[in-house]
Every structure is written in C-alpha cells, then in structure tokens.
From TrEMBL:
Organism: Taenia asiatica
Annotated protein name in UniProt: Alpha-1,3-mannosyl-glycoprotein 2-beta-N-acetylglucosaminyltransferase
GO CC entries: Golgi membrane
Function (record text): Initiates complex N-linked carbohydrate formation. Essential for the conversion of high-mannose to hybrid and complex N-glycans.
Keyword Heme: no
Xref: InterPro entries: Glyco_trans_13 (IPR004139), Glycosyltransferase_13 (IPR052261), Nucleotide-diphossugar_trans (IPR029044)
C-alpha cells in the first residue's frame, strides 16, 4: 500500500516497486500494489492511471478541512494559524487510517506493507518482507517489520552484512509491515488524528513489543519537501544507505534466531561478554589503542547526557521517543564504526527490560 498525495515524483517509487516485484515468483499475485491517493491532485491521478492494471488506485474520499476549534474548544483565535500549519499531519493520519481499513477491513489481507510516495526500495525489498512475514504472524513479541535503519548512514553500517537483522524497541517506519490482528484488536479504534508515527512509538502502543529492522536499509527516502519541512532530512535521512545487493533470507532460520528466547541471550552475550569495554568515550577516537583490530567495543552510559555525547561522537541519532533511542533494543544501540562493531549499552545492568526505559526526552 502506497500513500500518495501531490508528489509527481512518486513515479520513481512506484516504478521501482513494480520492477522489483517482477523478480518475485508470482509477484503480482503475492504483492498486489495499491495506491491510496489523497489531495485530489489531477496530475498525480493521471500518472497513476498510466500504470494501468499494474496497480489498483484507491481514492481517499474525505478531503474536508479540519475544524480545529471542534478538536480543541479552548483554542484561542491567534493560535489558529499555528494549528492550520500542521493540518498536513492530520490529513496524513486520516489517509493512513482509511487506507489501513481498506486493506484489513474491506479486503481482509492478513498483512500489509506500508510505503510512502517518496521511498526508494532495495532490489530484495519484497523478499525481505516475505521472509519475515511468518515470524511476524507467529511471534507475539513483535508488532512490526521495518525496512529502515535510523542509523543506516555509510559510516555506521557494515556494508558486507546485508544479511544482518536486529530486534528494536524503536518503531522505525519508512517501509513497514503490520498484521490485521494488530489493526483489529488495537490500532483501529485508537488511531490518532495526527502524528501517527509518534503514536506508534508510545509505550502504551508498543506494549513491550519490538520491530525487526535491518543493518542495511531496504528503503531510502528522497522526499525533502513535505509536511515536516525537511526535519532530519539534510542532517541524516538523505545520507542513509540503500542496500543494492540482494540477499536470500532463510525464513525458517529467521523464525528461530530472531525470537526473543534465542535472540536475547545471544545478543547480550555479544554485547556484554564478547566486546571490549571502553573506559571513556574519548577512546572512540583511537580504537586501535583500546582493543585489537576489528574487535567489538562497548561504551556504557548511565545518563541521557552520556548517551547523547557518545552518539554525537559516532555521528548517530541522538534523540529519544518515550526514553527509547533510535534503533535501541534493551537500551543497546549497535553501530559499525571505523571497521568494528560498537555498542552503546546501559551500564550497571545487562540491558534494560523493554518497559524499564527511563523517561528521557
């Protein structure tokens, strides 16, 4: 399901999806492509129609303006322009809810992959999701599969490991898959009027569950211009590296190795037992003196300031959503820096339980 509005460059995203779908066995049947168009843009609609039967066009019927006084009766007059400026976030959330309802309530699909109209995708995009679909359906400790690594810039990933996957307590978005069960039982009635992605990152929504994300992103955003006015785009998003080497995942193996009863113990062993503890973040500048070449290193943090300072030195994302750093699992952020694995990990314990994250902003 692609969410579209008035971006005529969406043909770039759509053409890649169609091209890579052809490489999949029974691709058109297994991965029907729907485009949900908001905004009533005539040029975009003409573009979509040019694809003929390769896609199905859905026209989101509600294009009405939002009455912010109805949403918040306490609104004072001079603040109305501010609320009008963020109406795009309300429109996006409305289109998401309608589109998800079309997929799950009307068409009864068990799984849906959501992409925006400004995403490039990797050649193995469909294989990636189809390999992880059985895991998502049966592992109740998961609530999504994502194609995106928030720290996926070239200086923080191992480009030789396009097979590497992680569990993450942070909802990444930017090309993600969810189940009809999650929609039916939790999301439909609770879906927010705006800021749907922030909603998905709330503890009350995650409920201790994780997402799967890759070492090397299977999606890449090229849309600088949008409702967020390029927030994070110039600093991070445009540098994110898109995988260009397909990998054949073993779905049966993933259903074993990525489940928490196997994954958690192995991950904690790699982080706390097999890595070299750095005494100070200044050692990040001369790692070869701190440990043998190519040996994984661990830098522990106990405060928000510790984490932010270390992340800044590495060039990693430094923000939190309800206390969870981007890409973190049990509080641990894994990056590949200067030829070796680096873990930013909570000190004083072997990681945090999913529901024990501090309330850092």
């Amino acid at each position: 399901m692609m969410l579209a509005c008035n971006r005529i460059s969406m043909n770039r995203s759509l053409s890649h999806l169609i091209e890579y779908r052809r490489n999949c066995l029974n691709g058109s049947r297994r991965f029907p492509i729907y485009v949900s168009q908001d905004c009533n843009d005539a040029d975009v609609l003409a573009l979509l129609r040019s694809y003929g039967e390769q896609i199905t066009i859905l026209n989101q019927p509600d294009h009405s303006d939002f009455n912010f006084r109805h949403i918040n009766p306490n609104l004072i007059a001079y603040s109305l322009p501010m609320y009008s400026a963020i109406s795009g976030y309300y429109r996006i959330s409305r289109n998401y809810k309608w589109s998800l309802s079309q997929m799950f309530d009307e068409r009864k699909y068990n799984l849906t992959i959501i992409v925006e109209d400004d995403l490039d995708v990797a050649p193995d995009f469909f294989d990636y999701f189809s390999s992880l679909a059985p895991l998502l359906m049966e592992d109740k400790s998961l609530f999504c599969i994502s194609a995106w690594n928030d720290n996926g810039i070239p200086t923080l990933i191992d480009k030789s490991r396009n097979d590497l996957l992680y569990r993450s307590d942070f909802f990444p978005g930017l090309g993600w898959m969810l189940t009809r069960q999650l929609w039916d039982e939790e999301l439909r009635e609770a879906w927010p009027m705006a800021y749907w992605d922030e909603f998905m990152r709330k503890k009350a929504v995650r409920r201790g569950r994780a997402c799967i994300r890759p070492e090397i992103s299977r999606s890449h955003t090229f849309g600088r211009k949008g409702v967020s006015n390029g927030q994070f785009f110039d600093s991070y998003l445009r540098f994110n590296y898109l995988s260009d080497k397909p990998f054949v995942f073993n779905s049966t193996l993933l259903r074993i190795t990525l489940k928490p009863d196997v994954y958690d113990s192995q991950f904690l062993t790699e982080v706390y037992d097999k890595s070299v503890l750095l005494n100070d973040r200044s050692q990040l500048s001369h790692l070869d003196e701190a440990s043998p070449q190519s040996t994984a290193c661990r830098l522990e943090y106990k405060t928000r300031e510790d984490f932010v300072a270390a992340a800044r030195l590495l060039g990693a994302m430094q923000d939190f959503k309800e206390g969870v750093p981007r890409t973190a699992y049990m509080g641990i952020v894994s990056v590949f820096f200067c030829g070796r694995r680096i873990y930013l990990a909570p000190g004083g314990s072997r990681g945090w339980d999913n529901n024990e994250y501090p309330d850092w902003k």
